[in-house]
Specification:
47% helix
């Protein structure tokens, strides 16, 4: 399917963009269950010892089991994850589309309800929790009980609230405000690229199939771009590309997995999204994600992908070589069509008994994907031994 890569809406002014967003401030007050570690809590002299790390750390001691407070942190993490799927971090809060306020408010109200319920249970059982913790740490039982924080004070240390705010510049600060708003478009693309890069490394690198359950993650990336698409004119064609990927999941599923041609189309989409520069190259080219995916499936670029992925995650650390490798991989995507038309296709038909010859990417004459693409179904691929690439 051909995707219209041209901006189909006139650019909005900074004020118009700000009017399409609201600033969400979330206030979580979480108590650590700790109090100050006192000199008498440490045993000096012969046979002396410091409290175990489960009880004391960095000058503080725990007067309740940290596990009894864990659910408060879980509620916060769950809510932030949902908000970050929709909005952008901004000035200590989140910029969210006005059109998504109802959905976001439902997430906030659900979190508030859960928080208050957990808080009520914790306060009700607080004194018993302290006593149980003291019983489990008999050597420091007296120290724990002597440091108990009154339940009324604990109640004030646990809280949740939120506020929606409209944004507008004060008189004389319009220019500065406009600069901040205009920069959000690039920030959105960078944020999406980080998520796409993580998706590629986790689900696609070194693999030849992907679980159908990953559709939900791609849907989340797609919805995030779409909801904030007014910030950047590049978003519309990227949303269309991801819509095409999402529609292909049920059609191309083989049981619980996606394999063969469509697997490489997903790989192509994530590789495009994983770097702002490659997004620019894709939008400037006349290539479709099917063309890029077909080139991957044809086998001529698998070694390049493996090289790039290997440089990214070798020894569990990111490598500066990764971006260079993938830039090389996508180097000719943005070439003008005239240049591409003059170049011989990089993939040639091969005998079924022969392996596909890898392309020398150091050759400047090589074009990554020519318009004349071999039908993947017509090419017999050899089994790929991943160990041979390391």
């Amino acid at each position: 399917m051909a995707i219209n890569k041209k901006d189909n809406e006139k650019a909005l002014t900074a004020v118009e963009k700000s009017e399409s967003m609201i600033l969400l401030i979330i206030d979580f007050d979480l108590w650590t269950g700790q109090t100050k570690l006192r000199p008498e809590d440490i045993k000096f002299g012969v046979g002396g010892e410091v409290p175990p790390k489960d009880l004391a750390i960095l000058g503080s001691k725990k007067i309740v089991d940290p596990g009894t407070l864990k659910e408060f942190g879980n509620i916060k993490k769950d809510l932030i994850r949902k908000i970050e799927r929709i909005g952008l971090k901004f000035m200590g809060g989140y910029l969210v589309p006005t059109s998504q306020k109802a959905l976001i408010k439902s997430h906030l109200d659900e979190a508030e309800s859960r928080f208050n319920m957990v808080k009520g249970d914790f306060i009700l059982n607080y004194e018993a929790s302290v006593q149980q913790w003291a019983d489990e740490n008999k050597d420091y039982s007296k120290s724990i009980l002597n440091s108990v924080v009154p339940v009324s004070q604990v109640a004030t240390k646990l809280g949740f609230d939120y506020e929606f705010m409209l944004m507008a510049p004060v008189a004389g600060e319009e220019a500065r405000f406009g600069e901040r708003i205009e920069g959000l478009g690039d920030k959105l693309i960078e944020d999406v690229s980080q998520k796409a890069d993580k998706f590629y490394l986790e689900y696609l690198a070194f693999k030849k199939e992907i679980a159908i359950t990953t559709k939900k993650t791609i849907q989340g990336i797609r919805d995030r771009i779409d909801g904030l698409s007014f910030l950047n004119g590049k978003c519309a064609p990227l949303v269309a590309m991801l819509d095409e990927i999402l529609l292909g999941y049920p059609v191309n599923a083989e049981g619980r997995y996606i394999k063969n041609a469509f697997f490489y189309q997903i790989s192509a989409a994530m590789l495009i999204l994983s770097d702002p520069k490659r997004i620019e190259q894709f939008l400037a080219s006349n290539k479709t994600v099917e063309v890029v995916g077909s080139g991957l499936l044809a086998g001529s670029h698998i070694d390049q992908l493996v090289k790039a992925a290997n440089s990214k995650i070798e020894d569990g650390e990111e490598s500066d070589d990764f971006d260079a490798d993938l830039d090389e991989f996508f180097a000719d995507m943005g070439d003008e069509e005239a240049s591409a038309a003059e170049t011989t296709p990089v993939v040639e038909a091969v005998d079924e008994s022969q392996s596909i010859e890898m392309v020398d990417f150091t050759d400047p004459e090589v074009v990554l994907f020519d318009e004349e693409v071999i039908d993947p179904e017509s090419v017999q691929l050899p089994d790929i031994d991943q160990n041979s690439y390391f």
